[in-house]
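Before the break, one more example. Copy the sequence into your notebook; we will annotate it together after we see the structure.
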Amino acid sequence: MPPLFVVLIITGFIFSNKCPYAYGQTGLTTTRKNESQIAVKRVNDTFGSVNTLAVLVPNGDYEKEGQLLRELERMPETNTVLGLANVDAMDDYVLTDRLTPRQFAEMTDLDVEVARLLYSAYAVNHETYGQLVSGVDSYGVPLIDMFMFLYDQMQEGYVTLDDEMTKTIEDLHEQLSDAKLQILGENYSRLVLTLDLPEESEETFAFLDTLHKTTAKYYPENNFLVRNSTSDFDLSVSFGNDNLLIGVLTIVFVVLVLVFTFKSSGLPVLLILVIQGSVWINFSFPYLQQEPLFFLSYLVVSSIQMGANIDYAIVIANRYVELKQIMPPKKAVIESLNQAFPTIVTSGTILASAGVLIGFLSTTPSIDSIGVCLGRGTLISIFLVMGILPQILLLGDVIIEKTAITLKRRLPLQNHSGVMRLDGHVRGYIAGVVDGDFSGLIHGTLNAQVEAGAISREQTEALPADFM
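Here is what the structure looks like once it is written out:
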């Protein structure tokens, strides 16, 4: 069994490091599904899944925004790109195109003079008086701004259009108002992208980096990516470093606790192999099954499994260390198993059963994965502690003894006189120098260290005649 365990622990270490973690719950599956999950699956099966991403950039510069949108549209990873600067309005114009009075009049069938007056009013309203001096014929205004201004002038009765154009302007105003609420904020414009990529994958995360660099060319500062893919990417970056740090610190503190518990530097190493080995083997299964594991499930289950495994290992190891003082090591480890069996099997079975039931009954992906991993990990821990740990303790008994930490202390000198009964080993002066095992009566004075045994005072009695 120990050679098999060595192979398992090495394999578990390699495979657990390749565990496919999921940082969002979209790609996770559960044994049971609720109505919402069933509906989402039907929609995705029918229409395909959609990965939406939002890019936030400072508003106000429609030309720069349009250049960015056109570059994003050319990327193979994007299906659709939406922003104010690429929304079609009328006559092949987009909402952010700058139109002169004549162009606006031709598009809306307004009289050119009315359009000039409208543009003059717009210049006065926005305090761009220089355009009035140089002439409004060359004055270009973004179409969306002019549409909104025209609607306001219509509402106030300054401009009158025919019924068909009035209805068109009113419908357009409703659409523009809704678009501005969704796309244009007080300080930022939102560009909405749908990606031909899953929510989280290496390709998706690599594209996010490309998207950051592309956006930074036009907006070096204050550009943001928002949505599930970016959150998953941030979690993946922090999880790798945090998990390594937590794993190292956990092992260090566990070893320190075991060192002070057993007063041996070798025994904690043997125990940590079993404890950490069970965690590695448990989290090899997602890699072998090619099923993503929710990252929080790993953190929760690894903590619970390590805590339970430490408890099981300490129960057996502590009893083994005590029992081998009064019996051979092999009998001591068998007796340790006999004594620990009810405790470990009872608590382990309860924990494993609870985990499996949670895994099969829960419809929440994160809870489902916690239950499955917890049940599987507990069974692995019970098997290793009951089947592998006893043999490791026997094989490593020499290491345990050689690395035992014993603090030698100077025994106090005892002073007695008269008649004393001494059974044990003494070092010191008894009417001379004595160093050895002694059992019998002492008549005289004792000034020595009693390293083993005990001293008791006896009633005074006459010395034998031959002693004289």
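Residues 424 and 450 are 7 Å apart (CA to CA). Residues 413-467 form one domain. Try to locate both features in your own notes.
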